[in-house]
Amino acid sequence: MHPKFKLLINNPILETPSYISVKSEYINQCLSSYLYLPKITNHPFIFSCFALSIDGKLNYPDLKSGFAIAKHNLAATKHERYADWWILQLARSISDAVIIGSNSLNAEKNDYAAQINIAELQQVRTELNKPKNLLHILISRNCNKIDFANELLCQDNDIPLIIFTQQAPKLLPQHFTLSNIKELNLANKKQIILDNTLDLNKLIQKLHQNGIKTILNESPYYHHHLQQLQLLDEAWINQSGVYIGGNASSLGQFNSSFTVNSHPHYTILTLHSLGYNFVYPRYKISY
Fold first, then answer.
1. Residue 124 and residue 116 in contact, taking contact as beta carbons nearer than 8 Å
2. Element of type H or E holding 161
3. Pick from 238, 237, 273: which is nearest to 31 by CA?
4. Can you give the pTM of this predicted structure?
5. Distance between CA atoms of 275 and 207, rounded to whole angstroms?
6. Angle between helices 220-228 and 200-209 (to 10 degrees)
7. What are the residue ranges of helices labelled H in the chain?
8. Residue 111 and residue 152 in contact, taking contact as beta carbons nearer than 8 Å
9. Cβ–Cβ under 8 Å, residues 205 and 195
10. Cβ partners under 8 Å of residue 136, min gap 6
């Protein structure tokens, strides 16, 4: 199954020298245009990708998984539900690393890994000279809350993993090294980076120095925090036509609000549709 999106809006900024295209005919056929990404200079390209309800919720109160927003849109066709997953797979395929918050591990029941399961997008990744697996960056103030014995990210030795934490483990898990940001070495598949301040800016600078040029954020909490640091460049928000309401999780729910005179601005870069129950906007964020 390959989605065929209708391109509704295409911002002319994408065809300026600030952007370069991913020359994939497969992506071109699916998106009805080439994928244009910003040129990377002195800092990584950092973007988020989420599916939200029409009222901006991340999940249902009775089902915490973020993947339920698309899966349980019962009015949508299977092609629309699949297209949401395809957009996330596309985001992963162009990225060097992915940021995951510790709350997401609990929501997905120890089975969360940013894998690419579409052969054509894995081929795109290969053509971009990226390794098979993304570097996973798990951010947790206290890594002792992580289930090292059962968590997929910790047990699968093919998945490179950095745990960025303030609290050192009581007992160093098997296969993991413990170090600080200055000692960060991407040759180590499993490492715990201890930093008392949990300075995400410092970590991202170090990763950039080590060749990490594109970072996908899949953490709702750090979506907001990265904007507070003015580090988030784009948001890919798949909006499902379901309404949830109440106090279910939403982006930025546990962060301090921005103010009327100081807040991020979202400008549409592209807007796609497929059917009548989803829209798929891509936003540029400015501060």
1. no
2. strand 161-167
3. 273
4. 0.96
5. 40
6. 90
7. 25-31, 68-71, 78-93, 102-107, 119-127, 152-155, 200-209, 220-228
8. yes
9. no
10. 97, 98, 100, 113, 114, 153, 159, 160, 161, 162
Ordered domains of the chain (ranges, CATH): 6-257+268-286 (3.40.430.10)
CA distance 36 to 4: 18
Q: How far apart are CA 191 and CA 22, in angstroms?
A: 32
Measured between alpha carbons, how far is residue 204 from residues 98, 175, 220 in Å? 12, 24, 18
The backbone torsions φ and ψ at residue 254, rounded to the nearest 5 degrees and listed phi first, read -105, 15
Report the SS3 class of residue 6: strand
Q: Which residue bears the tokens 């539900």?
A: 81
Question: Which residues, including other chains, have CB under 8 Å from residue 25's CB and lie 6 or more apart?
Answer: none
Rounded CA-CA distance 79/5 in Å is: 10
Output the six-digit token pair for 189.
């598949």
Which of these, 158, 94, 84, lies nearest to 121 by C-alpha position?
94
Could you read off the pLDDT tens digit of each residue along the chain, which spans 287 residues? 799 999 999 999 999 999 999 999 999 999 999 999 999 988 999 999 999 999 999 988 888 877 888 888 888 889 998 999 999 999 999 999 999 988 888 777 778 899 999 999 999 999 999 999 999 999 999 999 899 988 999 999 999 999 999 998 999 998 999 999 999 999 999 999 999 999 999 999 999 999 999 999 999 999 999 999 999 999 999 999 999 998 888 888 888 899 988 899 999 999 999 999 999 999 999 99
